[in-house]
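Thread: Newbie trying to understand structure tokens

Hi all, I'm a second-year student working on a class project, and my supervisor (Dr. K.) asked me to get a predicted structure for one chain before our next meeting. I've only ever worked with sequences, so writing a 3D structure as a token string is new to me. If someone could post the tokens and maybe explain what I'm looking at, I'd be very grateful. Here's the chain:
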Amino acid sequence: MIYWKFIKEYPFAPEEYDYPSPSIHQCLKVVDNSIWDDLQIPWRQIDNRYWVTFYNLGPYCASMFLFHEIQYHLERFLIENKQKILDDLSHSVELEDIIPPTALSSKRIPDELYFVIDILQDFQSFFPRNKISSTSSVPVSNLDWCTPKLKVLVEILLEHHSPTFQGIIFVEQRHDASTLSKVLNLLPELHGKIRSAFLVGQGVNADGVSTRTDFCEGDPIKLFRDHVLNTRKQIDLASAGI
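---
Reply by user tm_fold:
Sure, no problem. This is what the structure looks like when written as tokens:
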């Protein structure tokens, strides 16, 4: 068996993108860090990963990562604090006029919770659900919202695509694997050609939506071997991937 290795050059990413404003990041970053702590959402870590994804893949991919990551942590918070939220709503309606708010509970759910929920709702039509299909109509209008690195990857996939094509893309970051898998299924240039999923190790202290395979039901390795999928993103900390 013969293996070929080639190198593709790509230009630096632009300093500015023609991307809709305000972005979801611009909306969420106004929330104070203490509020994120109260909501049990690790904003500092998520923000760092947002910028890594921004520089690697571009503003749309970074925004999509941010949307799904905040959504994941917020859903978990709501499930874990369901009763407390209901109690707070009950107190605010029935008791707040006669009992000072500080006396209702030692730790109230912050009002900013609903502000964050409103932001996610405003952007939900702009990003795919965690489990998506290749026919999703999410508006990824063109590659101008992606980095030159990602554009070159698309060119490589188109250049080597065939009816029997299969490929594995190695990346260094879990969130890049998760986001790249989604966006390759959405780009018009790859529509009908690429069916992608991602596979990552759980690692140590790994948390968030990007730690699990969320494109499709079933084992991505089996689906890849059965040719249901033809492209797989896999984290490889030893490689210098995308």
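A couple of things are worth pointing out once you decode it. Residues 91-106, 132-136, 212-216, 235-242 have pLDDT under 50 and may be disordered. The radius of gyration is 21 Å. Feel free to ask follow-ups in this thread.
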